[in-house]
Amino acid sequence: MSGRPVKRSLTLRGHRTSVSLEDAFWRAFRDIAAARDMPINALAAEIDEGRDIEVGLASAIRVYVLAWYRDRVISGS
Description:
The protein has three helices and two strands.
């Protein structure tokens, strides 16, 4: 497993953007989107809408992924 970020394109509200995340975060991000039964672009748009303007999208995605899994460990689900 590489710790180097991988750049991939996403479409947010009809506009293409690139996001660099490590492979582990890309896999977890796709898994969360599947668990929520939504396209990865829709999940990215949801995260984008909720982030502080001073926080980059890649950072917001990483924090979202961490919180998703942390909440499941704490709640036991």
